[in-house]
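Slide 14.
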Amino acid sequence: MNRSDFFKDAVWVGKKSRDKNTFSILRGHFFLDKTEKVTLNVIGLGFFKCYINGICINPDTFLPLSSDYQAGCDPKNEILSAHRIYVPQFDITPYVHKGDNVIAVHFGGGWYTFANRPFGLPKAIYCIFACENGNTEYFVSDESCKIGDSFVDDYYFVERECHNYIDYTDAFGTDFDDGAWENAAATEELDTQYCTTNCPQDKLIKTLTPNILGKGENGGTVYDCGENTTGYPVMRVLAPKGDAVRVIFSEAIDENGYLDKYRCHRQSFAVTSDGEERLVQPEFVWYGFRYFEVIGDAVPECIKVVYADISSASSFECDNDTLNWAYNTFIHTMLCNMHTGHPSDCPHLERRGYTGDGQVTCNAALYALDARAFYEKWLQDIADGQDVLSGHIQYTAPYINSGGGPGGWGSAIVEVPYQLYKHYGDAEILKKYYPNMRRYINYLESHSEHGLVVRDKEGAWCLGDWCGPVILYPDKEILNHRQQVFIPAPMVNTYFMIKSLQKMCEIARIIGCEDDIPQYEETIKYRRSVINAAYFNTFDSNFMMNIQGANAFALDIGLGNGNTYKNTLDHYKKLGHYDTGIFGTDILTRILFERGDCELAVELMTNDGPQGFEHWRKGGATTFHEYWDSNRSRSHSHHMFGSPVAYIFEYLLGIKQAEGSCGYDSIIIAPQATSKFKHMSGSIKTPHGIVSLGYKKADKNIIFDVVIPEGVDAVFIYGDNKIVLQHLQNTISLCE
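Slide 15: predicted structure.
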C-alpha cells in the first residue's frame, strides 16, 4: 500500500533547519463537531510518543516497529528485496472532545537515525479520521503544524538519553501557546511500502522495586532490581536548578559492590534539573540491566519492565531445579530480547535481529511463547533483506551492518517458515517464502569451492558455529573470542546448506513443487560426500577429532559409520558437559534425544560443570549469558544457547507430532528419561487447544495424566505400551 492509503493527503514534516538528528515536538489542531468514532494513523521517525489533548496514547512503547524503512541504505553492492514501514493505528475517541483538540507528536532517534545506518533526519506524519453516520472528515499533518525543540538534547539509541529541563514547559497539552514556534517544513517522501501488522508491540509488563546496595564508585547510590531485565527507572528528580542527575546501568557488580564497568555497555540516562521536583523517565531508549547507580539528587520510584506484549504458551515443572531454571530463564531471556518486532541478540550492546541467534531458538520460543505473529513479522524482515542480485540473506533483520555467516545465519529463511508451519499448520507461509529459499540455495552454490561453502560475500565474515567455550589448544588459553571456534566454518556452513535442502524437499512436497526434489536430493548427496571426504578420519571414525560436536553435525545429515556415534557417546560421557557453540549445542542435544540416549542429554543440560545451565544458575544468573563462561561474557542477556528448551517438550514430556503432521493434528506422547525424575508436568498451547502431560511415581508405579484437545488424534507410548488416547483427560497407571 502507499502513503495515501493511510494518510490521505498528509505530508511528512520536520524542522526547517535539518542539520542534526535532534528530537522535535510537532503540534496540530483539529476541530470536531461530533466524536462518534475518531481514529488516528501516525508515525514519527525514528520512535515517537503521541499525545491527544495532553494525554500520551502510547506510553512505554517503541513505535513504529523496526523495519528497513526506506530505500537508500542497502548494503554495498546489494539491493534489498523490499522496504516497508508499519503504520501504528489508534482509536482516540476516548481522548477527544467537541471543539478544538490538540495532537502533539514527540519524535526522533531510534533505528531510523542510528549512526551505523542512518536513513534520514527525523520526520512525522499523521491523519485523523472523524467518522459520523457513515461520513468521514479527516485532519492531516502539513506545513500549518507548529514544531519546536524537545527536552531530549543528547541521544544515542544503544547507549544513552539525556534530558534538559531548563526553561521546560509542557508542550503537549491544550494550554500551551505554540504561536512562537515555527511552522513545520515538508520533507522528502519515503520510498517504501506502508503496511499494518498484528505483531505485538512493546508495553509496560510490570514494575519492580529496587533495593539499595550501598555507595557506588562514582559517589552515587547503587540499586539492585533483583533480576536482569529490560526497561528503565522512573526517577523523582529533586536537584536544584542547573544540577545534573545521572543514572548508569550494569548487568553485574564487582567484588566491591560497584557497578561492573565491563558490563555497563556505556548505558546511561541523564537529567539537567530546572529546580522543580518532577518524575522523569527515558522516552526513547530501553536499557538491559540489573544494577544501576544514581548520581545526584534523585531517587528511583520504580523500575518499568518493558518488552513485547507476548504471553506464555506453555508450562513446565519437575523435581530438577536446573531444568526448571532453564525453562523459566529462557522465557525471561527471550522476552528481554523481544523489542520493536524482532528478536535481538542482546538488549543493550547491539539490539539487532541476528538471524543466527533468532533461527536457532525459534523452535523453543514457539513452544514456550504465543509468538506466532512476532515471528511472522520478523520473517518478513528477513525476506525484505535478501539481496535481489545474489540471494544473500543478511546477518540481521531488519538489516544493520553486522557479522555472521552464510549457513547458520542465512538458513533462517528456511528454518523460520518451516517452524511456523510445523507449529501452526499454515502451508501458505511455505508457499510465500519458497522462492526466497531457492534464491538462498543459489547463493550458497555460488560461494562454494569443491562442494564446500567456503566464503560469504567479499569483505564479510564467514563464521560457522559461534561462541564456543575456551579450549586449551595447544596448551594455552586463546583469548580472542573468534578463535574459540575450531570446528571448520566450511563444514558447518555446508551442513546448514544440506539441512536447508532436506527441509526444502519436505516443503516442496507440501506445496506441490515435487519437480524440484530430484535436484535437491542430488545436491544433498554430493555435498554429503564432500563433507565426508574433507573431514572424516577413517582411522578413528571421527569428523575433525569430534571437536566441538563435529560428529553431531555429521551424524545429523546421515554421515559417519557405526563407531562415529559411539565415539560421540564416549566423549560426552567422559567430558560430562557441553563443549559446543550455539549451533552445536542444539544439534548435539537433539541427536542424543533422537537416538534414545536421553539420560546423557539430560546430564549435559543439568551438569554442574563449567559449560551448562547449572553453572549459570549457581552463579545467580536470571538470564542466559553470551558465553558458557560468564566471566568471558560481555552480555548477560543472550538467548542463543536456549534451543535445548524445545527438547524438554519434545522428548522429556514427549509431546511430538506424528510424522507428516503439522499444527498438532496428530500427536504422539512418548516421555523419555523418566528414571531421572520423580515427577514432571508441562503443557503447550496448540491451534487445537492445550496439550499437557504430567506424571508422578508412587510405589513401583508411574501415573500419567494426559490432556488432549478435541479433534486431535493422539497415541501414548511408554516402553512396550501403546495406548490410543481419548480427548480431554486420560489417566494411565503403569509399572515403572
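Speaker note: Residues 473-482 have pLDDT under 50 and may be disordered.
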